[in-house]
Amino acid sequence: MFQEKIGVRSVRLALGLLAGFVAGQALAQDAPIQRVEITGSSIKRIVKEGALPVQVVSKEVIARSGATTVADLIQKLPAMQGFTIEAIAAGTNSGGRTTASIHGLGGTYTLVLLNGRRMAPLQDSGSSVNLNSIPMSAVERVEVLSDGASALYGADAIAGVINFILKKNYQGLTLDAGVSVPTNPGGKAANAGFTWGFGDLETNRFNLLMTYRHDEQKKVKATEREFSKTSYIPLNYDGQAYIYDRTSTSGTASNVNVAFKDPKATQIGFNPYKKVNGACPTGFFPYLSNTATTDYCAVDSASTVETVPESKRDTLFTSGRLKISDNLTAFADLALGRFDLTARIAANPVSVAVTPGSAVYNQYVAPFLSQAQKDDVKTATATYRASEFGTRDSQTITDVGHFVTGLDGSFFGWDMNAGATYSKYKLDERYTGGYLLNKEFRSLIGSSSFNPFLPAGSPTSPTAEQINGSIFHGSIREASSVLRGVDVRASRELFALPGGASSIGVGSDYRELHQVQTTSTAAKDGTIYGFSPSAEYDYTRESAGAFAELALPVMKNLELTTAVRYDRYSGVKDAAAKRTKGETQSASTYKISARYTPTTALLLRGSYGTGFRVADQNDIANTLVANGFTAGSYACPPALAGIDQNLCRPGRVQYNSYRGGNEKLRPEESKQFTLGFRLEPSSSVTFGADLWDVKMTNQVSSVGEIQAFADPTKYRELFTDFADPATGIKTWAFINAPINIGKAHNRGIDWDLTVGEKYSFGKMTINANGTHMLKASYTLPGSDTEWTDSMDKYGIDNQVTFRDIIKVGVTLETGPMTNALTLNYRNGYTDQAATLYSVATKANTTNQIRLQVPSYSTLDYQGKFAISKMWEVRAGIKNLTDKEPPLTLRTSSGHQVGYDARYADTMGRTVYVNTSYKF
């Protein structure tokens, strides 16, 4: 059971508590009731079902999930879609970042809080928070507000809020340990930690708490799973045999591209080894996307990547609370974390110039050119892959520090809280294998013995000594994000109304966000062969906001709440450019909500509000920098060939890409509403549903590469030339830059059902919850009138919006033993369009084919046994039936082919045991 509503036990209990509150101060004096602050409201009140849909993931639910990381816990909630997973570290500079995304709106619209306060965002992803920054062992519960909350929390809470509530006032010592082992090869994981607390805040007037945990995750190689072992995939569609070819034209026995001086002449490409020997080298495939001007051989590069990267994680949380007086408590929280991840992908594909007239050129290139072509040759370039130098290994070490100190108290009828925050997110990306030293590698390929057109292991292959001496080891970039802030908030009762006392909450906050990225000397000075460094920047932006919230119980069964907020963001101070980029931006937002209980068994609620979000500093201030390659392969569009044929690459291949910013970006704006109910027809049955709707305008977006390559005339400004650092040869490149014209409209229903009954043999509880999407529409990038969507299909945003994601849990408690089964379901969808090779016609299909990806379900089991009051053991099996990810032909991840790790379990059946002992 993942979703547990506040006050879910009984709406009647909530009303009873409310009635006690309305009775006035006399009752409060006789039996004081503790008031707490619930996510989504600044007013401290009695815990009860409110006007906003807040879901609670309790400590027991966390343990029962079997999740070993915060990301694993959060990303499996049915309301989560469109998040970033750790596996994208294969082939990116993500460092294994993970994000949360409520209702598919995206991580930049989902505010993540730690004990109600902001953390430093991802340095290279704007306002998103890396879930790997959250100390799993310290989490007491998670509150998820699946409704826009910009009016309370600020500009980036359009989709909602995830608030991690950490442990406090803990006494004793608890030791925890766990291990998980897939039944397939690879992927073993283990963790161990402790939680220690001393002093009781109420009796000793102080409490000290410390919790530490160490996690290790072993890698899973692509070849260790059937679904990921190859990028040359045979399949059947509509009764016909096809091959999906995502192999790479960069190989050790290289292909060669030949360009000509005549600007009207078309480049050609072929494999010299095949020309000489009549067939591709052993281990190579005939490239199935060859055109009239190419005859390539290809390698299965996807088979060399890692489906799950290896990682280590250490997290420490320590907290202190001191009760200065009955009405004032001082607190300080410190969270520290280090996340060390190493991702390995296919060996380095590099361009190697072949000098016309050289021995290699004369033997392997010239014989296959006509005399007219020989006379007109401009350049010949080998598409070499340094497979003998090993895989490309990228290690990213992420350090997180989050410190908050402040005061919590009551003065003159006000409940007040003030705090100061210092939060830092820092990463160091290092290359530990497979990347080449420029001077040494150029010396090697410049020798007369080097031949890029022969397979690995040939007499001309580099020696082990040459290989070891040509590999770069070291840092390529460091980046950090530092958030400094102060905040104060207060709430109190005001005046009496027919339904009870009205309440007000007020607050303000100030923040400074400083984001820096530097590249190492080696990354900039040409030490690494063919390397384009990341952008360097030093950005700072300040923001300030103030809010007020008013709760009005106008009747005994009707409460209205309204909130307003004003935010102001400065422009981005660019230290390198010595100027401010972008303008100061400000806005006022509001929210109105209501809860109505016509009977003791029924609660009705609704809300309406507005929001706004300023663009990330990078989106505003970034300069144009190289950003790898396009995800897909493309033939040079005729429109671009007509401008400059020499910039075209032969055949159907990947093109280089750039990324840049836009100083003219305006804030995004939103309007959202919710309508819902909670129904308890009996003490054993609870059902609820909330309809939500979010509309966004001025949305920051960018034109997708598929769209741009399909109409390069319309998007001409998104294409420029790229000079290969290794050869100096220029080709067309795609520019990925944000614009401010988009619109989006998402709508859906969150629902949950809980049924619990006690029997002679124990208590059985059934909980089902899910999200049913009704709309997931957005305008095409570059347009505010042309709409598309990703509903049950792979959209141009490289995402799928699933109409139904459902989780059903059945729990049986029998004395010290608890057994739980959990079913996870998401529906099928229409896959990305793909060009396939027809085995019958021996040619690529002229019309692209879209597979129907089937629905995907997994079944998890866990048994908990309380050996004693102090000792607890949990054992379980995730993915009990060892369900593999379904086949998908997506191209949005160039290094992981044939499956989508975002939407399916890549680990397979996994057995785990966790134990906890409290002294």
Automatic annotation (TrEMBL):
Transmembrane parts of this sequence: none
Key word Translocase present: no
Keyword set includes Transport: yes
Protein name: TonB-dependent receptor
Localization of this protein: Cell outer membrane
UniProt-listed PROSITE patterns: TONB_DEPENDENT_REC_3
Main location (coarse class): membrane
Domain named TonB-dependent receptor-like beta-barrel: residues: 379-880
Entry keyword set: Cell outer membrane, Membrane, Receptor, Signal, TonB box, Transmembrane, Transmembrane beta strand, Transport
Family that this chain belongs to: Belongs to the TonB-dependent receptor family.
Pfam families listed in its UniProt record: Plug (PF07715), TonB_dep_Rec_b-barrel (PF00593)
UniProt source species: Massilia atriviolacea
SUPFAM superfamilies, alphabetized: Porins
